[in-house]
Amino acid sequence: MGKLCVVLLVLIGIAWIPIVEAAQGSELWTYIQSVTSYLAPPITAVYVLGIISERINEKVILTSF
Fold first, then answer.
1. How high is the pLDDT of residue 40?
2. Where are the alpha helices (DSSP H) in the chain?
3. Pick from 56, 29, 61, 32: which is nearest to 45 by CA?
4. CA 58 – CA 49 distance, rounded (Å)
């Protein structure tokens, strides 16, 4: 399943190249930064909530073998 997902993402990435070049005038760095600016805040919020909130975390029971 993992290999299939990787192949699928590579194909999507290859198909996305002409769209990026046409939309941004080949300014890939600007495009990457704009996408990152939209995705980073929600990812950070979920990460911080996962660390801080006890209701979101799963209880872990440590056992020694």
1. 93
2. 2-24, 28-52
3. 56
4. 12
Domain ranges of the chain: 2-52
- The DSSP result for 41-57, as a single string, is HHHHHHHHHHHH-TTTS
* In contact, 28 and 20? CB cutoff 8 Å: yes
Tens-binned pLDDT, residue by residue, of the chain (65 aa): 889 999 999 999 899 888 777 765 657 777 788 888 999 999 999 888 888 877 766 776 767 65
CB of 32 closer than 8 Å to CB of 40: no
